[in-house]
Amino acid sequence: MADHYEVLGVASSASADEIKKAYRRLARQYHPDANPGDAAAEAEFKKVANAYEVLGDPERRARYDRFGDDGLGGQGGGGSPFGGAGFGDLFDVFFGGSNPFGGGRNSAGPTRGPDLEAHLDVDLADVVAGSTQEVEVRTAVACSTCEGTGAAKGSQPVTCAQCGGAGQVRQVRQSILGQMVTTGPCDRCGGMGTEIPDPCTTCNGEGREIVTKSYTVDVPPGVDNGTTLRLTGRGAAGVRGGGYGDLYVHIRVRPHDRFVRDGHDLVEQVTIAMTQAALGVTLPYETFDGPTEIDVPAGSATGDALTLRDHGVPKLHGRGRGAIRVELVVDIPKKLSHDEEALVRQLAELRNEDVAPEGSKLLGRIRSAFS
């Protein structure tokens, strides 16, 4: 007899979920209804069902792993063409989880409304401190006239004459394996189980109407571009009393004129004069938490960074904050006055450093080469 793992195309170490996924895929591929008149496909389908009957049951799988088919005591050998362990899963494959013999997931009654999406543009200050903002969406709400029933005033929904209130109808059809009973939504009531003989004139029997609504969104500190906030029950209303879906708000952060975000840090380039870089300086500095000062040490160079800890972006799902990193850019003047040039030459002489002679165009040529 073929190895059940090989039949399903999985390793002997496969998880229960991997085995179920393999079974569903192969059952859909080889099902006789999908391959009418194909004896080979029917035979393969039975092998797949038999393999899953064994491997889909933890106790049978354990005995099979230890003793092979001999350890199953006749319980693993194709008692049902669908496989005992895979019967419910087979309907999950072909009927979306509804059991045609009753008791499935699909039941009569109004269904939940769809989820909605919206975008919200926020400033970097909102990211750091958090904020409360409004977002507008075009949505469906319960009809104000019929209060969501779909029926005109003085009337009410009645039981569907076609499905008897079940919301589903069964169909029997012949297949190579015999009669197949399938269940689908009632086309008369749309799966609701009720009909509206006298529909509401405001909503035409839908039980909902389209409006523009504004919702308050609490933007927590630390959000980033692409962060999605879920507002439960703020989506669209379902038909005829169905519950509300959810609203998903996608955050977009506007560019800032000073800072660039790097994870939880904020980065800014600050230009200082060459004299400040050489001698050091204390500069006033504005943060989202208010004014402070930064100390530029003597001898700083372009690319050096100063760090202000706990002044960056809060951690959305944690504690603490990032930092502000101030990256220094030393400004070398492109043109000096006569007195300034004299002072710089005097400094070069004191430091015994060679410089271009006075009036030379060498400096200009060097600048041109790097511009």
Look up the CATH topology of the largest domain: Chaperone, DNAj Protein, Chain A
Mean pLDDT over the full residue set = 84
Q: How would you sum up the major sheet?
A: 4 strands, mixed
Number of helices: 9
Q: Tell me what portion of residues adopts beta-strand conformation.
A: 25-35%
Give the class from helix and strand content and strand pairing: alpha+beta
- Number-wise, the strands total 15
Level-1 CATH class name of the largest domain = Mainly Beta
User: Roughly how many Å is the radius of gyration?
Assistant: 37 Å
Task: Report the uncertain regions.
Answer: 75-88, 90-106
What's the order of the H and E elements?
Answer: HHHHHEHEEEEEEEEEEHEEEEHH
Q: Based on CA inertia axes, which overall geometry fits?
A: elongated
Q: What is the spatial order of strands in the main beta sheet? A: 10-11-15-14
CATH second-level architecture of the largest domain: Ribbon
Spatial separation of the terminal alpha carbons: 79 Å
Roughly what percent helix?
10-25%
CATH superfamily of the largest domain: Heat shock protein DnaJ, cysteine-rich domain
Architecture overview:
With 371 residues, this protein is an alpha+beta fold. It has 4 domains: 4-95, Helix Hairpins; 116-253, Heat shock protein DnaJ, cysteine-rich domain (Chaperone, DNAj Protein, Chain A, Ribbon); 256-332, HSP40/DNAj peptide-binding domain; 338-371, no CATH class. The protein contains 9 helices and 15 strands. It has helices at residues 4-8, 16-30, 39-55, 58-67, 87-95, 124-129, 274-279, 338-350, 362-370, and strands at 116-122, 131-142, 158-159, 168-175, 178-185, 194-195, 208-219, 228-231, 247-253, 260-262, 265-273, 281-287, 290-296, 305-308, 324-331. The strands form 6 sheets. The chain has a 4-stranded mixed beta sheet. A 3-stranded mixed beta sheet has the order 1-9-8. A two-stranded antiparallel ribbon has the order 2-7. A hairpin with a 2-residue loop joins strand 10 and strand 11 (265-273). It is elongated, with a radius of gyration of 37 Å. 25% of the residues are buried.
